[in-house]
Amino acid sequence: MAxxxxxxxxxxxDQLVFYVTPTDALEKHAAxxxxxxxxxxxxxxxxxxxxxxxxxxxxxxxxxxxxxxLVRYQGALPDLFREGHSVVVEGLxxxxxxxxxxxxxxxxxxxxARSIDCYFSATEVLAKHDEKYMPKEIAAAIEKNKNIVIExxxxxxxxxxxxx
Length: 164
What we know:
Strand order of the largest sheet: 2-3-4-6-5
Radius of gyration: 18 Å
Organism: Cajanus cajan (Pigeon pea)
Protein name: Cytochrome c-type biogenesis protein CcmE
CATH superfamily: Nucleic acid-binding proteins
Order of helices and strands: HEHEEEEHHEH
CATH class: Mainly Beta
Keywords: Cytochrome c-type biogenesis, Heme, Iron, Membrane, Metal-binding, Transmembrane, Transmembrane helix
InterPro entries: CcmE, CcmE-like_sf, NA-bd_OB-fold
Number of strands: 6
Number of domains: 1
Subcellular location: Membrane
């Protein structure tokens, strides 16, 4: 009976889909590449949406303000999908292939996301025009990262020598 419960719980855990930020996604993938199906939440980076000529997929970058990850999705994007707005994508992390890595976008905003060894292959894209759709844990992580970025910029500005 205990063995049956363990098997059922393991199978159930494998079917759960968690919300993670791009930073968490890359850490999770590095720790266990075989279990990488989850929901990725963040902001669609401004200027990152492209439709590669060599592929039926759309590419865009999702950021948590610290880490950027390239997302590839084949299908129609939701009407409310917008750059600079929140998005949740479901899928899995995959290693870059030579074709994908070589298909560098004309937009330089994806360079940071292309500098890592993997991308997010989305099977579903969920978007809404306001932050209310974003899961609490993702919104909290982005707010925390925003504060880190502001603090780093303040420190850098304070350390910059002033010329008169």
